[in-house]
Amino acid sequence: MHGENVRAYVTLEPGAARPTMQDLIKFARERVGYKAPQEVIFLDEVPLNATGKVDRVTLKVMAQEGAASAGSGSP
Questions:
Q1: Disulfide check for 23: which of 19, 55, 61, 71 has CB 3.0–4.6 Å away?
Q2: Which of 4, 5, 10, 67 has the alpha carbon at shortest distance from 41?
Q3: What band does 25 get if pLDDT is binned at 50, 70 and 90?
Q4: Where along the chain do its domains lie?
Q5: Burial 2-25 (b: 16+ CB within 10 A, else e)
């Protein structure tokens, strides 16, 4: 949607070194330009729905909860 930021959810293969968020964003910008993520979230595993596809609804809920907890801190 217009005005929304792109966020990437990433899982790593067992034993893989964890790249920095900046490295992944740079990698994506070189390939997809303006549609590259502005934020990268590392997950132990990607949530799947009953048909085995990525559960986008769960990811949206996770994003909303993350935004709510980030905005609930006291100044």
A1: 19
A2: 10
A3: very high
A4: 1-44, 47-75
A5: eeeeeeebeeeeeeeeeeebeebb
